[in-house]
C-alpha cells in the first residue's frame, strides 16, 4: 500500500519504482528535486537507506591535513586558496605534517588534500605520504583529489596510472572525492576555468578504481547551477559507477559563499534544500553504497537530521580542517567518538565505527 504522504505528494509512481527496485530516470530526478514535499522525499529516501544499511550509521576516527593553501586554479567559489608569496600562504613539510597529526588520539583514517601548488616537486608528495604512513602504519591514508592527481601527472611527466601506483606504494589507500564540483562546462567556464574538466575527473577516478584504489565522489551545490545540472552530475557518477564499482560514498557539499568572490551574489543553501538534495542523491545513486552527511559543511544538527533523509555516514572526528574554516562554514572544531555516537543514537540509529573502506571496526 502506498503511504498517504507519498500519494498526496504525487510521487506514487516513483514509490512503486523504488519498491520494485527499478532505476529512476532523469525526469524522475528532476521531479523529486522540484518537489516541495520534503517529508515525502524523506519517506522515499529512508526506505532505500534502510534497505541498504538498516539502522546502521557509520563514522570514523579521522584527522584532516591540508598541506598547503597555495593554488594555481584560483576557483571563484573558494575562500581557501592563496597565491605564492602571500603573507597567509603556507606549505607543511612532511615532518610538520607528522607533528600536526600526532597531536591528539591516533587516527584510523587520515584525509590529506591541499591546493594545486605550482612549485612543489613531485617528490614532495611521495615523501609526505611515506612520512605519514611510517608514523601511522595502522591508519588508512585518503589523499589527493583527482585534480591533484592530474597536477602530479603533469609535473612528473608520468601517466595517471604510474602516479597512482607510486602513491599507493608510498602509502595511499584511497582518494577523497573533492574537485568534482558540478559536471557542467558552463559552470566550469564561469567559476573554475583552470580546473580539470568533468571528463578528466571521471577518467582519473575510474583509473584509480581499475587499480584497486577506491574513491569517494562529491558535488558542490548551491551556487550558480541549475536543477538540471545537479541531476546530470548525479547521473554521470551513476554511469561511471556502473562501469567500475569503485565509488565508496557520495558526499554532497553545500556551497559556503562567505569570503569568496560570490559572496553577496549567492545566498547560502537552506536546510530544506540540503535535505532535499540528500534524499534525491540517495534515490538516484542506486549503485553507490554510502551517502555522507558531512557535518563540517552541513552543521552538526542538520547532519543528524540528514540520517532520516538517506544518509548513513556521519563522517568523523575531523580534527583541523581548514578549507571550510576559510569560508566561515564550520561550527565545531572536532567531535569526539562519544559525541558522534550520542548524535547517532539520539536520531534513532545504531553507531558503527568504520575504517576507510566502511569495514566495521
Furnish the topology, listing elements before pairings.
Blueprint: H1 4-8, H2 12-19, H3 26-34, H4 38-53, E1 56-60, E2 62-66, H5 94-101, E3 109-113, H6 122-135, E4 140-143, H7 146-156, H8 160-170, E5 172-174, H9 185-191, H10 198-210, E6 215-221, H11 227-244, E7 247-254, H12 271-284, E8 290-291, H13 295-298, H14 300-306, E9 313-316, H15 322-326, H16 337-346, E10 350-353
Parallel strand pairs: 1-9, 1-10, 2-3, 3-4, 4-5, 6-7, 7-8
Helix pairs in contact: 3-11, 4-12, 5-6, 7-8, 7-10, 10-11
Brief description of this entry?
The chain is of the alpha/beta class and 361 residues long.
Structural write-up:
The two termini are 38 Å apart. Residues 323-328 have low confidence and may be disordered. α3 packs across α11 (227-244), α4 (38-53) crosses α12 (271-284) and α7 crosses α10. The chain has helices spanning 4-8, 12-19, 26-34, 38-53, 94-101, 122-135, 146-156, 160-170, 185-191, 198-210, 227-244, 271-284, 295-298, 300-306, 322-326, 337-346, and strands at 56-60, 62-66, 109-113, 140-143, 172-174, 215-221, 247-254, 290-291, 313-316, 350-353. It has a 4-stranded parallel sheet. Strands 9-1-10 form a 3-stranded parallel sheet, with helices on one face. It is an alpha/beta fold and 361 residues long. β2 (62-66), α5 and β3 form a beta-alpha-beta unit. Helix content is 44%, strand content 13%. The relative contact order is 0.16. It has one domain (55-353): TIM Barrel, CATH 3.20.20.
